[in-house]
């Protein structure tokens, strides 16, 4: 009987880097990144990680998530310990879903690979922490990118979120290719939400160029948002606590019985 040599067991970890500073990287994520033989990710995310001897980096461009996921699966299949680096939380508009899309449509053998997702701090959590507790009651997250969904779907979800009186976290609010969508989103929300609704523009949270703007729906300048910004629009319950000489706190109380 001949026994064919088996490939060494590889694994694949999809690792959340958090929104920026190392202090927001979980100990689990740090350990997985240190032990990986191969790091895969969008180049600016890999640039945030220190070089380690013996570790191979596979940097790729934006918008090639599915190909990046397949590359990671092929390496894990060959016996490598692969870490796919993803900004924020890998399960929120990020690489974890791309990996599962690749598995769903790919080789049956990929379903046997040892795969785990290492969570991270998402941009909406970091932004919320900077201003107080705006996500203290029911909220939803919507990506404004129409790369993978029609704009009509975005509009339907924005309307539903406004009717449901959710706090709304807007990811991917604008890019150079689609600067107008955040303006359209604000025009839509202004039709049904109160003008005094608190709005937060949280830009580059946790990075050197961090900038936070707290305003109202009526006064908000949608052009403040770029691809590094998380926009938050309050519910009817979201309120400010004014402070002398300091940024106000923004929070959404846990008790929504008055809005029943
Ligand atoms: C492709 S999504 C990735 C989200 C990421 N997986 C997360 O959990 O935060 C990219 C969007 O996340 C938001 N974002 C990511 N990092 C941010 C930061 N440091 N400050 C503010 N917004 C951020 C922006 O809306 C950006 O356009």
Walkthrough of the structure:
This protein starts with 10 loop residues before the first strand and ends in a 9-residue tail after the last strand. The strands form three sheets. Strands 3-2-4-1-5 form a five-stranded parallel beta sheet, with helices on both faces. A five-stranded mixed beta sheet has the order 7-8-11-9-10, sandwiched between helices. Strands 6-13-12 form a three-stranded mixed beta sheet. Helix 3 packs across helix 4 (95-105). It is elongated, with a radius of gyration of 21 Å. The protein folds into two domains: 11-121, Tetrapyrrole methylase, N-terminal domain (Cobalt-precorrin-4 Transmethylase, domain 1), CATH 3.40.1010; 124-259, Tetrapyrrole methylase, C-terminal domain (Methyltransferase, Cobalt-precorrin-4 Transmethylase, Domain 2, 2-Layer Sandwich). It is built from seven helices and 13 strands. The model has no long low-confidence stretch (mean pLDDT 95). The protein is α/β, with parallel strands linked by helices and 260 residues long. A hairpin with a 7-residue loop joins strand 9 and strand 10. The protein binds S-adenosylmethionine (SAM). Residues 19-20, 86-89, 92-94, 122-123, 127, 171-173, 202-207, 227-230 line the site of S-adenosylmethionine.
């Amino acid at each position: 009987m001949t026994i064919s040599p088996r490939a060494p067991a590889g694994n694949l970890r999809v690792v959340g880097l958090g929104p920026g500073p190392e202090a927001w990287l979980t100990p689990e994520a740090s350990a997985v990144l240190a032990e990986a033989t191969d790091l895969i990710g969008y180049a600016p995310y890999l640039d945030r990680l220190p070089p380690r001897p013996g570790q191979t980096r596979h940097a790729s461009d934006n918008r090639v998530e599915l190909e990046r996921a397949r590359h990671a699966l092929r390496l894990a299949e060959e016996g490598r310990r692969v870490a796919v680096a993803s900004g924020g939380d890998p399960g929120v508009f990020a690489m974890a879903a791309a990996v599962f899309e690749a598995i769903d449509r790919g080789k049956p053998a990929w379903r046997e690979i040892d795969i785990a997702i290492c969570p991270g701090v998402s941009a909406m959590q970091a932004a919320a922490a900077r201003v107080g507790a705006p996500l203290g009651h029911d909220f939803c997250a919507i990506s404004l990118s129409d790369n993978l969904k029609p704009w009509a779907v975005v509009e339907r979800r924005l309307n539903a979120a406004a009717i449901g009186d959710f706090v709304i976290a807007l990811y991917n609010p604008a890019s150079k290719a689609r600067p107008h969508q955040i303006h359209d989103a604000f025009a839509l929300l202004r039709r049904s939400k109160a003008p005094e609704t608190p709005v937060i523009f949280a830009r580059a949270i946790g990075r050197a160029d961090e900038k936070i703007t707290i305003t109202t729906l009526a006064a908000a300048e949608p052009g403040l948002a770029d691809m590094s910004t998380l926009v938050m629009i309050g519910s009817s319950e979201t309120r400010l606590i004014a402070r002398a000489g300091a940024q106000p706190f923004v929070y959404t109380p846990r008790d929504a019985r008055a809005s029943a």
